[in-house]
Task: inverse folding
């Protein structure tokens, strides 16, 4: 049985971790290096750092933030935001990232995925796919019509009309070795992952899929794994101290999901940290 990964996400803006709802109304959640070290201590399997303002501000992700986080970690680190060229990815990998996430730039220039895979290998290339329900369903008069999702870019500010499932499939054919799938509709809402979206993408591709957007507790992570995810990503529940990584792993293990043991086990529960 494959081991499920639990991945805290650090959305970074101006060198600080932030969190909001549907990529907006961001609030400060702490120092990225300090949070990274805490989550590794709790048993995180990987960490994701996303510079949420890099693409809207037309700049590259700050390498110094990546370096600071890398010094605090021994687990794998994925970094995304503002990656538009092979040179951008190289700079982040040199700063300590193990994988780079690409979103808006890949939608604009799909061949970027090929160039990145050729230069660094598919295992280093993560497609960050932000998806939202279509504003107008294909058959609005038929409630039984299949759900459809479109790709959104520019931190959710721009709808593209591109079918999310088709884009996921094409991206993996071009060289993406993993998909970080975020539901724009669910992000920060605490209403749980978009399970139909997650199932549809997981069935369509042959690479690992990370579920993101909407987790409020361990039960949502369990649901995502059972819906087809290979890993689960969360932010608010960890940043706000509602649950520790160890907390959610214990619930996942009790539900029959194979997870790596948390460091420090019960000593790192959210209750013990209060």
Result:
């Amino acid at each position: 049985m494959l081991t499920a990964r639990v991945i805290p996400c650090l959305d970074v803006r101006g060198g600080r971790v932030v969190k909001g709802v549907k990529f907006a109304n961001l609030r400060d959640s702490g120092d990225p290096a300090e949070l990274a070290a805490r989550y590794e201590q709790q048993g995180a399997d990987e960490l994701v750092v996303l510079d949420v303002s890099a693409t809207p501000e037309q700049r590259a992700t700050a390498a110094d933030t990546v370096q600071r986080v890398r010094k605090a970690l021994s687990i794998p680190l994925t970094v995304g935001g503002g990656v538009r060229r092979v040179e951008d990815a190289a700079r982040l990998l040199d700063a300590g990232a193990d994988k780079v996430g690409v979103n808006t730039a890949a939608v604009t220039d799909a061949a970027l995925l090929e160039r990145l895979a050729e230069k660094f290998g598919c295992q280093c290339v993560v497609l960050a796919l932000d998806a939202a329900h279509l504003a107008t369903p294909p058959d609005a008069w038929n409630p039984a019509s299949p759900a459809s999702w479109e790709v959104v870019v520019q931190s959710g500010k721009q709808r593209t009309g591109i079918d999310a499932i088709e884009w996921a499939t094409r991206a993996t054919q071009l060289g993406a070795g993993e998909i970080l799938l975020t539901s724009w509709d669910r992000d920060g809402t605490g209403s749980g992952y978009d399970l139909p979206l997650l199932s549809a993408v997981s069935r369509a591709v042959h690479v690992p899929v990370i579920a993101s957007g909407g987790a409020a507790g361990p039960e949502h992570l369990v649901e995502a794994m059972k819906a087809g995810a290979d890993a689960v990503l969360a932010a608010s529940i960890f940043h706000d101290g509602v649950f520790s990584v160890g907390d959610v792993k214990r619930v996942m293990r009790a539900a029959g999901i194979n997870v790596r043991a948390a460091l420090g086990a019960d000593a790192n529960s959210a209750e013990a940290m209060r």
About this structure: Residues 5-273 form a domain with the TIM Barrel fold (CATH 3.20.20.70).
